[in-house]
Amino acid sequence: MAKVAEIDREDERRELDAENQRERQLSLADFYSLPDPDIFAKTRALYEYAQSQKKIGHYAYRRTLLAASDHRVVIRDEATGKPREMIMMASNNYLGLVTHPKVVQAGIEAYEKWGAGAGSVSLLAGTLDIHRELERKLAAFKGCEDCIVFPAGWSSNVGVISGLAREGDLILNDILNHASIVDGSRLSGAEVKTFPHKNLAALERYLDRLSPKFHGRLVIVDGVFSMDGDIAPLPEMVEICRKYGARLMIDEAHATGVIGEHGHGSPEHFHLEGRIDIVAGTLSKALGGVGGFACSTKEVVEYLRYYSRSYMFSTALPPAVTASLIAALDVIDSEPELRERLWWNIRYFREGLTSLGFNLGESETAIFPIIIGDDWKVKEMTRLLHEDGVFVNAVFYPAVARRLSRIRMSLMATHTKEDLDQTIAACARAGRKLGIIR
Predict the structure, then answer these.
(1) Alpha helices of 123-272 — where are they, by DSSP H?
(2) What is the pLDDT of residues 34-93, one digit of tens each?
(3) Is residue 293 located within the same domain as residue 354?
(4) Half-sphere exposure of 46 toward its Cβ, with a 13 Å CA cutoff?
(5) How far apart are the two ends of the chain, measured CA to CA in Å?
(6) Per the domain annotation, does 89 fall within a domain?
(7) Phi-psi region of 214 (alpha: psi -120 to 50; beta: other; left: phi over 0)
(8) Which one of 71, 254, 379, 386 is the catalytic residue?
(9) Does residue 14 fall inside a structural domain?
(10) Which residue among 43, 103, 297, 311 is the one 20 to 30 A from 247 at the CA level?
(11) Quick check: is 285 catalytic?
């Protein structure tokens, strides 16, 4: 019987090795489209792939949290079916405002006063007094005249870009811009060109060569790039745009609350308040809620209220979320120690990882990419870190280039030194075991 069991285990190992080899060759891009008359064919293929990922321990999606998203979380571990505490290194809750008492209490009070929802789209019957208060606070926070609020960060970028740009206009995107910017650009009907990441010379060449051929020109860039954590060179971009009569739009998703003297984001960081044409972003990262916004002149904002389809045809933010966002803006200004703690964590964590020899790319902020460039090693490292009690995200093509697949971690102000030390130690163990570092 022992010999039969050993043969069975050997067969299972060979089967897993074969699956590993197949897995190394595949990505989500392989299931985007299949030449099959049945439109569901690709769904079956992806489902089978996902099941194989689970079987070999490489499926790290939709891990279910049983408690609030904080520096430590409790998940339902799929391997055991039991609750398990982990260090959360995959949340965008940069300042810990998701669970801040003032932010939570504001939401509770608004729920009791206003009810569960707004009841209508903002343009018609869904604008509550607290929605207007949020708009005023966001406009002041970003140094602009007015603000429009959307139900999601994705819909803010899609709504602004497709609401402003038309056929005959030109949009110039940094190649690493967020997917929502790409989608909004495609929907607009404008001519879309992409320039190499932060390449100012390429941007200027495009504007110099193409400006005479188009009506309006819109340059779009992330303030802080979501996969690499680096900061856009906004002062130079402002000058180039002014030279060629182009408008500049920035996405502040990962900058708000993190950079700037008071955490107000990219314009404050570079002392450019009021000089960026459109300051857009999400309300779901450092602010701890959900929704999106775009700040600009009164004329631009008023226009967008009538021509942004993702605003016009979406119900307004729930009152509780809106009140919590207002409180979050107040906390950012009244409790600078949260941002100071975040930046202490950023410096400490960067020193720990770089001293081990990990490649962190051009990261400058709270986003830490460990660039590996081998999908299988990324998946294995994610699995090993999970087993070690550290929750991280794995990022592959087509979200990033194949040669730049990575582990992506994000820091919070609420992470303790113990959290960071345990994570650094876990990364060291996994990195050495996989030959990523010596």
Answers:
(1) 129-141, 153-164, 179-188, 200-210, 234-244, 266-269
(2) 999 999 999 999 999 999 998 888 988 999 999 999 999 999 988 888 999 999 999 999
(3) no
(4) 13
(5) 42
(6) no
(7) beta
(8) 254
(9) no
(10) 311
(11) yes
